[in-house]
What we know:
Strands 1-2-3-5-7-10 form a six-stranded mixed beta sheet, sandwiched between helices. Strands 4-6-8-9 form a four-stranded mixed beta sheet. The protein has a single domain (5-200), classed as 2-enoyl-CoA Hydratase, Chain A, domain 1 (Alpha-Beta Complex). Helix 1 (28-42) runs parallel beside helix 3, helix 4 (111-117) packs across helix 5 and helix 5 (145-153) packs across helix 6. The protein contains eight helices and ten strands. The radius of gyration is 16 Å and the shape is globular. The protein starts with a strand and ends with a helix. Helix content is 41%, strand content 20%. By secondary structure, it is of the alpha/beta class. The protein has helices spanning 28-42, 66-70, 76-94, 111-117, 145-153, 155-164, 170-175, 188-200, and strands spanning 5-10, 13-18, 49-54, 59-61, 100-104, 107-109, 121-124, 129-131, 167-169, 181-182.
Amino acid sequence: MSDAVRVAIDGPVAVVTVDNPPVNALGNAILEALGAAASALAADEGVRAVVLTGAGEKAFMAGADLDEFRGFLDTPAAIEEHVGISRRALDALCALPQPVVAAIQASAMGGGLEVALACDLLVADPVAKLGLPEIRLGLMPGAGGTQRLPRRIGEGRAKELIMLGSALAAEEALGIGLVNRVSEPGAALAEAVALAERLAGLPG
């Protein structure tokens, strides 16, 4: 597993942190490590809830690692491989039997939002921006965003966000149901952990 993906377990709650400065970009190694972490937690019966967050104040997670992605542009097979790795990682996260809470401590754009959408509940800091801006680069979200966003906020709103590449402030995202809660400033992780602890304490 990559050192850039850390798992800390405290009682029934696991906190998974992506720490890939400066913006927690999602290169293939990071995605594979995230998928491996999800698979390991799925098999851990002592873990009853999971929190997913990013390190630092610049981004929850950014999209693809641009330096890595530029190397794919002339190699269709490499692009297909990256998309496959992305989908497998997010599918593993989405398939976790435990509830997963995203602690969005900073902006979640592109692939970062797609990761958050694979979680069950989203807690965002007031400074967070959320969106899928890929269309502005002539691309479409390739890691499940076009499927998971409509399920969360409805087809009409999802089409608008995807087709315009718009970014939403945290309060706007709360208003349309994209996030479940907006935390106190700087408290997204603490509030997500508290929510996970409540979930972990429920019967079943």
